[in-house]
Amino acid sequence: MPTRQLHLAQAGPAEVADALAALRAEVGLPAMFPAEVREEAERSASDGGSALGGKGKGKGRAEQGRQDRRDVEFVTIDPPGSMDLDQAVHVASSGRGYIVRYAIADVAAFVRPGGPLDAETHRRGTTVYGPDVRTPLHPPVLSEGAASLLPDEDRPAVLWTIGLDADGEITSSSVTRATVRSRARLTYGEVQGQLDAGTASDSLSLLADVGRLRQERERDRGGVSLEVPEQEIVPGADGSFALELRRNLPVEGWNAQISLLTGIAAAAMMREAGVGLLRTLPPADDRDVARLRRTAGALGIDWPDEVSYAQLVPTLESRRPAHAAFLAEATSLFRGAGYLAFGVPGPDGGPPVALPADARHAAIAAEYAHVTAPLRRLADRYATEVCLAHAAGKEPPAWVTEALPTLPETMEAASRTAGAFERGCVDVVEAALLAGREGQAFGGVVVDVRGDGEDGTADGPQRGEIMLEAPAVRARIEGVGLPLGERVRATLAEASVPDRRVLFTLG
């Protein structure tokens, strides 16, 4: 699901870089891969992905029980500079609807169950992205090399084929192992430019059509997708810096719908199999929604009482700074996301966990599974194997069912670490943005009050959060009788980059 995205332009301010390095050490992000893990990854990359018993790269993938789908003109679509390419897409017309082919990096072909590399991926759980560098789930020789769906290279993949009707509803789905060959590594900007100029391939034009249809179906279900803009930290010539927003392009939302579509198809397949791993999210907490409404007020966004959150989001434009700030803050509604392993014994060895009749992901408004980013998320490798086994009429491999019971806990721990790092990054950036402006007054709205007297009538000191009008920063505030939901003037008392701390006082 969406997260706050920060990117550090060039080298960035030294103080910010030092604070981010200290933050990595504090939250426990690993600095490098152990030697035995790197050695196994290098051997696997050299073998061309034979971890599941294949013959390696000697005679071609088609002889390893894979479909040879190098005839399909797949392309990858990612941010500029991306090398860890999990997905390649091709969309065609079926005459009555569409055929979506989605090739996913076959990471299981490179990771030997129970080996050092497998153990290290369980320790990490997920790739963690920072403003300056990332901490990858797999060694770069795999994630940016042999396992990545780089262009003009034969690659082992898991191929999803999903049929859609003219309205974008799923009519069929299948999954198998295949050999694919991406034709191009495209950026969102390049694809949007081709679509706008009318020079896009038939596949990309149909992807846009399917993306729009799936967005309509999402709204019909009551789901909502956040387009969280990337914030770039841009140093100034005088040593200061600013935050600039990179607006989201329409194709980013359309492309994301292909991933969501595949996750929905995978969830249905696992429900049919009676075993699997779903991504779950409870409905948003009323307190979080109320705070978000106050944030909208602080940013000058009109949110009528009769309009739901799901109805508001599609009306916002990420290229507008106030809307972008709101979308970034709206990620708070996605608290409580987790994983549900079912059809296998619980982590304590108890009876098999039953799948509830309704296990929908609240934001997607459908049952959903993570299967499209195995280079960056551990869970995807296991959920994918369940789907492959079911499609082949087999039971999932033992290494999958043995790991499923503890995977939710493993992923939760990884998410906590990533979340702590992400929050710390935001604190660093906001402190750097405001440093040197202590004593200045800023306008904003008190969006949260903690402790006694949350209605703003308490006589004693209170702590809370304020959303500034400009710059769009949410920070801690202290004062007597903080007026929840009201516009106030607040004085910047502290902005410390090393301490990752910003504090305002009322008045």
Secondary-structure class: alpha+beta
Kindly state the number of beta strands: 19
| Percent in strands | 15-25%
Q: If helices are DSSP runs of H or I spanning 4 or more residues, what is the number of helices? A: 13
What is the CA-atom radius of gyration, in angstroms?
24 Å
Largest sheet: 5 strands, mixed
Task: State the helical fraction.
Answer: 25-40%
Total number of distinct structural domains: 2
- How are the strands of the biggest sheet laid out side by side? 2-9-8-5-4
Shape: globular
Explain this structure.
- The protein is α+β, with helices and mostly antiparallel strands.
- It folds into two domains: 5-282 and 336-434, no CATH class; 441-506, Beta Barrel (OB fold (Dihydrolipoamide Acetyltransferase, E2P)).
- The protein has 13 helices and 19 strands.
- It has a five-stranded mixed β-sheet.
- A hairpin with a 4-residue loop joins strand 8 (154-165) and strand 9 (170-181).
- Residues 58-63 and 453-457 have low confidence and may be disordered.
Sum this structure up briefly.
With 507 residues, the protein is α+β, with helices and mostly antiparallel strands. The protein has helices at 14-27, 35-47, 116-124, 140-146, 188-197, 202-221, 250-273, 286-298, 309-312, 321-329, 378-391, 398-403, 407-434; strands at 5-8, 67-68, 75-78, 87-93, 97-105, 128-129, 134-135, 154-165, 170-181, 184-187, 230-235, 241-246, 276-280, 338-342, 441-450, 461-468, 474-480, 487-496, 501-506. It is 34% helix and 24% strand.
